[in-house]
Amino acid sequence: MDLDFRKKPGNGVTIVDVNGDLDLYNAPKFKQAIFDIVDTGAKKVILNMRQVTYIDSSGLGAIIKNLQHIKAAGGDMTLLELQDSPRKVFELSNIISLFKLHEDETAAVNSFN
Amino acid sequence: MVVKKLIVDEFNDIFDTNTMNFREFPSVFDQIRAITSKIIAEAPERFKEGNLLEQQLSELIKNGIKHGNKCDPEKKIKIWYSFKKRVRFIVEDEGEGFQNLDNWNEYFKKRQTALYNQDFDNFLQLAAYKGPTSDENDGGNSLIAALEYWNGGMIYSKKRNKVGVIRWYTGGSEIQVF
Questions:
Q1: Cβ atoms of B138 and B64 closer than 8 Å
Q2: Concatenated DSSP letters for A54-107?
Q3: Residue A95: closest C-alpha in chain B
Q4: Chain B residues whose beta carbon lies within 8 Å of the beta carbon of residue A97
Q5: pLDDT band (50, 70, 90) for residue A72
Q6: What angle do CA B131, B136, B139 make, to 5 degrees?
Q7: Which 73-112 residues of chain A touch chain B by CB within 8 A?
Q8: Residues of A in contact with B112 (CB under 8 A)
Q9: CA B150, CA B146: separation in Å to the nearest integer?
């Protein structure tokens, strides 16, 4: 799994492009990486899930912990382009209502304004 | 509000292994997804639903290897499976069993109540909850998704170290075309 971080100039939004499986092997590294950017000041985070086709309960747990951490820091997190299989796992786990979902990057960025 | 629960039924037909295929593996954490892939490779495409079947089986195997057998490679994870008309799995480990099952049912009831009441702060807290045997890397949501996904039942043996699950794709009936 790879993570790329893009800062949108001007509005303080950080977009995290997630590439690969968010599974029991990658989830700890993923969770820590998001904690680290929040701890260094990122308060508006978009997780770009376009390249994530597999997520399990460990991946879900990491995303929930990240959301908790960002909210505790006074920020928020949205999900961009959640794919079909991962979306089904969110729905089955009954946690999809916790997240703001977007299909368009500009709309996701503007949702923080 | 309807809340599902995990149940124990030692003598349920779900544990009838007659006509099922069987494989067993040493309990190696790094092999959880590889073991899952070997079983899923035998499933018909129409049952896979993208990678949802793989993901759900992986959770059952992870529970057995990690929580049941404590990743002891000397202990085996046993898997019975059948793909005849529907998906059936029985996964058994050599551990002490899921002793917190009743507590988990209570936790799930609280979580669903928070969701029903749209108490999202409480719901987020509960969604991030870890059980007494969970570590920092456990998701805590696998059983919730499993209860929804295994629409033909999810039942534990009396010792609670064996779980049987069924997923139907046709609502239990097949369409005949004349």
A1: no
A2: -B-HHHHHHHHHHHHHHHHTT-EEEEES--HHHHHHHHHTT-GGGSEEESSHHH
A3: B127
A4: 115, 120
A5: very high
A6: 65
A7: 84-85, 88-89, 92-95, 97-98
A8: 94
A9: 6
Q: Do residues A112 and A79 lie in contact, with contact meaning Cβ atoms separated by under 8 Å?
A: no
Give the separation between CA B120 and CA B130, rounded to whole angstroms: 18
pTM of this prediction? 0.92
Q: What is the mean pLDDT of each run of 10 residues along chain B (178 residues)?
A: 92 97 98 98 95 97 96 98 96 96 92 90 84 70 92 96 94 62
- Would the CB atoms of B144 and A62 count as touching at under 8 Å? no
Query: What's the maximum distance between 2 C-alpha atoms anywhere in chain A?
Result: 37
The pLDDT assigned to B175 comes to 61
Q: Hey, is the C-beta of A28 within 8 angstroms of any chain B C-beta? A: yes
User: What three-state secondary structure class fits B173?
Assistant: coil
SS3 B12: coil
Given the structure tokens 């968010």, which residue do they identify? A22
ipTM: 0.92
Count of all residues that appear for chain A in the document: 113
Instruction: Give the CA-trace dihedral at B134, B140, B142, B144, to 10 degrees.
Output: 130
Q: Which residue of A has its CA nearest to B134?
A: A58
Q: pLDDT at residue A101 above 60?
A: yes
Residues 6+ positions from B63 with CB-CB distance below 8 Å: B91, B93, B98, B142, B163
- Å between B17 CA and nearest CA of chain A: 27
A64-98 in b/e burial notation, b at 16+ Cβ within 10 A?
A: bbbbbbbeeeebbbbbbbbeebbbbbbebbbbeeb
Q: Please give the DSSP secondary-structure letter assigned to residue B169.
A: S
Question: Which chain A residues have a beta carbon less than 8 Å from that of B141?
Answer: 57, 60-61, 64, 93, 95
Compute the distance between CA of residue A15 and CA of residue B5 in angstroms, rounded to an integer: 38
